[in-house]
Amino acid sequence: MKIKQIAEIIRATSLHWVGDGFPVNTLFSYQTQGNDISPFLLLDYAGPALFEPSDRPRGVGQHPHRGFETVTIVYQGEVEHKDNAGNAGKIGPGDVQWMTAARGILHEEMHGRDFTKNGGTLEMIQLWVNLPAKDKMTAPHYQAILSKDIPVVKLYDDGGIIRIIAGEYAGTKGPALTFTPINLWDLRIDAGRKIDLHLPDSFTTILLILQGSLRINGTEMIKGKELARFEREGDFISLEATGNTHFLVLNGQPIDEPIVGQGPFVMNMPGEIEQAMADYRAGRF
User: Fold this and answer.
1) What stretch of H or E contains 281?
2) What is the pLDDT of residues 112-165, one digit of tens each?
3) End-to-end Cα, the chain, rounded Å
4) pLDDT one-digit tens code per residue, 156-203
5) Distance between CA atoms of 30 and 36, rounded to whole angstroms?
6) CA neighbours within 13 Å on the CB side: how many for 134?
7) DSSP 3-state assignment of 115?
8) Which of the residues 20, 72, 108, 174 has an alpha carbon 20 to 30 A from that of 144?
9) Each residue of 238-284: pLDDT tens digit?
């Protein structure tokens, strides 16, 4: 066994708005970190933000994507999705939406109607996951994963829990279907508890703190809206919760291919971006 060392720590900086419904911190992006974060492309952390009641839904109107997947995890609030492939649904606290844009899709993401009417706190994550070249032009797909369908494993002596959204932990598999090997785990650990997380060697590993704080490998401390990216070499990390802590683990096999992106399109070659723009303008999504 060999410990995975921290490669970098990223702390939330400036906040920006996506549409009029999602105030986000972008915590990593392929445009900054490049292939170091592969197979992941981008992570936006929205909120926590309080919204007053309204008679007009807030959010992001219809927009395109091609070449990757979007994974939305709601912790507080409510988001409604609709796309031109005929998928529609609502996700609330604990629910996950896994949308495969692939060859092209148009979708909108808005605050849920009840949430809009009543107001409240919104907190959510949106993760972009890359697709290998052979799958970028497959048919779009949509997975609505409700909280009740996400398996929960108790950690030592009931000192915490882990929800397995994708991949596997201790023999328990998550419901999300992925194109490449990915583990996406949502963990809560009580203050003072320690855990060694065993992870595949050579995989990209990123740990995001939502609430609380963790001491990593006995040395570095990170807290809310901070993340640690680890070296790929090694097969475990040692964690100690210095307060009641909620965090997300992203772990995936790198996709060793070129990345070229512009706005909502992420492909492998510049010509494919030009084609995506032409197809979108021509209504072929």
Assistant:
1) helix 270-281
2) 999 999 999 999 999 999 999 999 999 999 999 999 999 999 987 778 999 999
3) 47
4) 777 899 999 999 999 999 999 999 999 999 999 999 999 999 999 999
5) 8
6) 4
7) helix
8) 20
9) 999 999 999 999 999 999 999 999 999 999 999 999 999 999 999 99
Q: Find the Cα–Cα–Cα–Cα dihedral 60, 264, 136, 70, rounded to 10°.
A: -40
User: Which DSSP state fits 259?
Assistant: -
Q: Which stretch of DSSP H or E encloses residue 189? A: strand 182-189
Structure tokens at 38: 């592969």
Which two structure tokens, joined as six digits, stand for 105?
A: 């899709």
Q: How many residues does the chain have?
A: 285
Query: From residue 51, how far is each of 21, 88, 90, 94, 122 by CA, in Å?
Result: 9, 23, 18, 19, 7
75, with CB counted inside 10 A (0-12, 13-18, 19+), is buried
Based on the number of CB atoms within 10 Å of its own CB, is 89 exposed (0-12), middle (13-18) or buried (19 or more)?
middle
Which stretches does DSSP call E strand in 13-58? Answer: 16-18, 22-29, 40-51
> Within 13 Å, how many C-alpha atoms sit on residue 22's CB side?
24
Residues 146 and 193: their CA atoms lie apart, in Å, by 28
Under 8 Å between Cβ of 252 and 183? yes
**CA-CA distance, 232 to 229, in Å (whole number)?**
9
How far is residue 280's CA from residue 156's CA, in Å, rounded to a whole number? 50
